[in-house]
Design brief:
- The complex is a heterodimer of chains A (about 190) and B (about 550).
- Chain A has about 190 residues and is α+β, with helices and mostly antiparallel strands.
- Helix content of chain A is about 30%, strand content about 30%.
- Chain B is mainly alpha-helical and about 550 residues long.
- Chain B has 18 helices and four strands.
- In chain B, α2 packs parallel to α4, α3 packs parallel to α5 and α15 runs antiparallel to α16.
- In chain B, about 60% of the residues are buried.
- Classes of the chains: A alpha+beta (about 190), B mainly alpha (about 550).
- At the A-B interface, α1, β7, β9 and β10 of A face α7, α11 and α12 of B.
Chain lengths: ~190, ~550
């Protein structure tokens, strides 16, 4: 087969470009450690998520501390994130490692925090796990980016990132008020 | 001798296939402009935001499935008949046409049902606003899935007609090399057979019985994976016919000839081998799939750049040769000596130019890490409006200006409109697509009726969101005008009387480096198909096996009506 000299040069340059791309990505995942969404979240029954009897934290989604790490459990359903939408934004401290665990109670959704690389599909039966650290306090937009039904475009919310000292204070307040409520209850009895 | 006189029966078939594709293009383009105006907020009076998704489903199915498949069927029918110099086997080819048309009508009726209030038909609500990707557990009317399956089965039958032609030709011409156009058609069809298995299994084994209530649950991740097994190769099913045009017809339109026949064959074989084991790159952000499998798919996807980069070289070299034949000189000034006033040439060249830009944004999509920035943002439609919406669609329109006179024997009418049309499309797409890419970088999602939220506002990285919105609306409107201009030229030409001599002919000049230089092993379809299947088994075997390990229908989801 006859291959022109220019064709050979071009072919060589093209292969170099491709190998270069693959090398940068391999370096990104092995060297720098850019994490991928993968199967670490495990599986879950979508129907049990729907009924709230999975026996996991998804039955009472929200921010918890597991082994000293902040973990946010989120359930996506038509057309809201719990927590995330409306009066219940996701609140996390700045500068801390936060892991999001997201699953769906019905159809396929998306979970994307705007201006960050938190971007995952939410598939019924699977748990998406993404870790991130927010260095800047502020309010970040949260959206469902996969079409999930007639009101898909209303499925937006927010992630509120607060300075760590403020976050702890609020948490203590919450704990305090919970204690107060409990004391009140005991007193009533 | 004009094609229509040499092969009257085959010409009638090509005309019918083109007619269906043009009707789909017209309705799809109308849906497109409605969306462009609605989601940018310029005008929301056509449909409610809830019905927007029905329009979006119609736009995707009519343009990405119906327009493409019927146009490709027509182009391939012409290419096989003219390069093998014989009429196509009529009974098979017409059966294919009717099966595809039945499927189209079923799918279209079920989509339109959503606009007219979803009447209950055969115990199911007649609606199908599940978009082009129809991810389970969102459920459409069974007619939608059956229609989609029939369109694909019809395209399989059409392929049989091409293969039968080749076998007949082989028995009369033993030992001869397969003509280049037929080689390209058959390689594309082999790729198509291999890659549509995924969607066929998804629809026939899972979604049709599930939508009818025969099985209770399907695994959303498994059906999604089967969809994407087909979902990326399908773009090569659109692209390879455009390549067929660019390799075999465009050099002639430029006044020259193809640079290298052997390299063209190598490129097509590379697509057959590499097209299918790449689908996981659409699932980079999916849970439930180990990142190792995603990495393998990423490597394959990157190597798939190779045949396209080779094409860029060969096509530009062939066109440059054409310009130099016409007396051009200089490193770049030869570009001026090309027939930019001929719509067939200008359309193909502008489509190729846009495809280069689309290829670059595709490299971003293929990158396993930077994909996170743009996944499911409007960057993605910005990208594929350059590939399917320009590389394929503009090439299809442009080559129709050259092909339709030959299959009808009628001169092209409305030449001024035809001459301007590729430029209108080019400008419209440049305006719309660049704004879509930038809006995607700002995080604005795709597939939404109203990309505005109460809780926060998007901020543009370069330019403001308001300016991007206006550009998308203007670009979308220009594209609608471009489609309308094309359809006016076609309608006037098809309805005109025959008379006078045509200014085009189907003669294709011999390549500079001919088929004799290419190794015979390139014609060995069995070998290439076997290697293609092996690569697929490596890329898809282990992940599919782990998905079905807990059972075919688990973790399962019952249907959820939209």
């Amino acid at each position: 087969m006859q291959v022109h000299r220019f064709e050979k040069v071009w072919l060589g340059a093209a292969i170099l470009l491709i190998v270069g791309f693959i090398a940068t990505i391999a370096y990104g995942s092995v060297g720098v450690g850019v994490g991928m969404v993968d199967d670490t979240g495990g599986q879950i029954s979508a129907e049990e998520v729907q009924n709230g009897n999975t026996g996991t934290q998804f039955d009472d989604p929200g921010v918890v501390k597991e082994d000293g790490q902040y973990v946010v459990y989120v359930v996506a359903r038509q057309f809201q994130f719990s927590p995330g939408t409306g009066d219940t934004p996701i609140r996390v401290p700045a500068g801390e490692n936060v892991t999001f665990k997201v699953t769906s109670a019905d159809v396929v959704h998306g979970f994307s925090v705007v201006e960050t690389n938190i971007n995952t599909m939410v598939i019924p039966g699977q748990v998406s796990e993404v870790s991130a650290r927010f260095n800047e306090p502020g309010t970040y937009g949260l959206i469902c980016h996969e079409y999930c039904g007639a009101a898909h475009h209303t499925m937006g919310g927010s992630v509120e990132v607060v300075p760590p000292e403020e976050y702890d204070m609020q948490q203590e307040n919450i704990d305090q008020s919970a204690d107060d409520a409990q004391a009140q209850e005991e007193a009533d009895q | 001798m004009v094609f229509v006189d040499s092969y009257p029966k085959t010409s009638k078939l090509v005309r019918s296939e083109f007619l269906v594709s043009f009707i789909a293009l017209g309705i799809g383009a109308l849906f497109g402009v409605i969306q462009a105006l609605h989601r940018t907020g310029v005008f929301r009076g056509f449909v409610s935001s809830a019905d927007y998704y029905t329009i979006l489903t119609g736009h995707g199915v009519l343009l990405a499935l119906v327009f493409t498949t019927f146009f490709i069927a027509g182009l391939f029918t012409w290419a096989v008949a003219s390069s093998l110099e014989r009429e196509l086997p009529q009974r098979i080819a017409w059966s294919a046409f009717w099966i595809m048309l039945t499927g189209t009508v079923l799918a279209a009726v079920s989509i339109i049902g959503g606009i007219v209030g979803s009447p209950s038909i055969l115990g199911h609500d007649l609606e199908a606003d599940v978009l082009f990707t129809f991810y389970a557990p969102m459920k459409a009317h069974p007619a939608f899935y059956i229609g989609a399956a029939l369109i694909i089965v019809g395209s399989w039958v059409a392929g049989l007609a091409y293969f039968k032609s080749l076998w007949e030709w082989r028995s009369e011409n033993p030992g001869e090399r397969i003509p280049l156009q037929t080689f390209m058609v058959l390689t594309t069809m082999l790729m198509w057979y291999v890659s549509t298995i995924g969607v066929a299994v998804e629809v026939v084994a899972f979604l049709i019985p599930w939508s009818l209530g025969l099985i209770q649950n399907v695994d959303p991740l498994l059906t999604r994976t089967l969809f994407w097994y087909f979902g990326h190769p399908v773009v090569y099913f659109w692209l390879m016919p455009a390549y067929l045009v660019w390799y075999t017809i465009l050099p002639k339109l430029a006044g020259g000839r193809l640079f290298s026949d052997p390299l063209a064959r190598v490129v097509f074989v590379a697509f057959l081998l590499l097209s299918t084991p790449v689908g996981f790159h659409h699932q980079y952000t999916d849970p439930g799939i180990p990142s190792g499998y995603k990495f393998i798919a990423m490597t394959n996807t990157m190597f798939l750049l190779l045949p396209s980069l080779l094409t860029a070289f060969t096509v530009v070299a062939s066109v440059e040769h054409g310009a130099r034949q016409r007396g051009a000189k200089g490193y770049l000034s030869w570009l001026r000596n090309l027939p930019w006033g001929k719509p067939a040439f200008a359309g193909c060249m502008l489509a190729g130019l846009m495809f280069a830009a689309g290829g670059f944004s595709g490299m971003i999509n293929a990158g396993m890490n930077i994909n996170y920035l743009i996944h499911n943002t409007i960057w993605v439609p910005g990208h594929f409006h350059l590939t399917v919406g320009t590389a394929f669609a503009l090439t299809a329109m442009a080559i129709s200006y050259w092909l339709v006179p030959q299959i009808t024997g009628k001169k092209l009418r409305q030449r001024t409109i035809a001459t301007l049309q590729p430029y209108v499309w080019f400008v419209g797409m440049a305006v719309m697509s660049n704004a879509m890419h930038r809006a995607g970088l700002a995080g604005i999602p795709r597939r939404t009726a109203e990309p505005t939220y109460d809780e926060f506002a998007f901020e543009g990285v370069a330019g403001t969101v308001g300016e991007m919105r206006i550009q998308i609306a203007i670009g979308g409107f220009l594209l609608f005008v471009g489609a309308a201009m094309f359809l006016i030229v076609m309608a006037d030409t098809l309805l005109a009387r025959r008379g006078g001599t045509l200014s085009v002919n189907g003669t294709i000049p011999e390549p500079l480096s001919g088929a004799d230089h290419s190794p015979r092993i390139l014609d060995n379809y069995k070998l290439w198909t076997a290697i293609a299947l092996l690569l697929i088994a490596i890329a898809y075997g282990p992940p599919l096996a782990s998905m079905v390990a807990d059972g075919l229908f688990a973790p399962g989801s019952p249907p959820i009506p939209v």
